[in-house]
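Dear colleagues,

As part of the handover before I leave the project, I'm documenting each prediction I ran so the next person doesn't have to rerun anything. This entry is a single chain, and its sequence is reproduced below.
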Amino acid sequence: MSKRILYIITLSEIGGAQTHLLQLLACADGDRELCLATSATGPLTEAALSRGVRVFLVPSLGRAVRLGNDLQALKQCINVLCALRPALAHVHSSKAGLLGRLAARLTHTPVIYTAHGWGFKPGVPSLRRLLVWLSECLAAPFGDGIICVSHYDLQLARRYHLGRLCFLHYIPNGLTPDGPIAEPSREAVTIMMTARFQEPKDQALLLRAFALARHTDTQLLLVGSGPELATMQALAQQLAIAAHVRFLGDRDDVPALLGQAQLFVLASRYEGLPISILEAMRAGLPVIASSVGGVPELVQHGVTGLLVPHSDLQALTLALRRLLDDARLRRSLGEAGRRAFLAQFTIDHVFNQTAAVYRAVLTRAGHRPRDAVQPPIKQG
């Protein structure tokens, strides 16, 4: 009986889906053979190789919709599945979710899809929403289950009828509990946002709010890269705050940076269940975030942080001023956020629930429960 599990994801960049996948790879049971397929080498493949994971490249697998490339990527996914013959495939991100599930069906491979936030949610441009929804409706019957990372996404999938096409499961993102703990009550405040400089993130809104709310000894750290980075650097110059804003690029020491910050902000137009907020909660930081997607499932307004409407400059500015002016409140919100993280969002919860989904899929695929391939993760 095969003990091989193949994970497929579109890109090897730094992002929430990649961080989630690394959690599964890093905590694998050594008795299981793990394989990863993605479009190109990058931070994810480097981390996977360092953990002994076999890596396969699918060069045509890209985010953009190009029929010729997509057909070639489908063929390449089929070739990988035929060569490896895994017991189970677990696909992540929209493009890999579509092509990976179709390839798995054509090769008779049981397959699970984790949706890290739906592309047909409110806030996404209308035409893209329609195309993504049609894509998900096409792909859903090819899979053996869909994992939603937030209750918001689970309800959205049901509202858009995906539940009629495939089994739906809710498993939130999680992290290991280890990492530096911040001191939010320090008077000289460092604000931090970790996100790719690309839609749906809204660094421009944060820069404008920071320009209106900042104190003289306050600095803003923006971690990440992306196509809008140069535009945001120019905006900081225009707002005359460039001396107080540091653009740090992609970093592999985000937990250490969070440990030196006093406040975390995530400004977005739409979201799934952001791992960046979980990282901030783990560090004991108060969070200000746009109230979109699954964010309210992480940030309890007035308890672990402050929620603001997306794209609302005045609301974000007022929230920043409130926490910049109140060190005691920053500390209490941060401590409550860490308690909530430890109670609900550690990786152990993800392990146990993912294991149950794997077992159910393999049982439905025709394996007797006692003969079924166990998931490549430790049992809690």
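The CA atoms of residues 304 and 333 lie 4 Å apart. The chain has 13 helices and 13 strands.

All the best with the project,
I.
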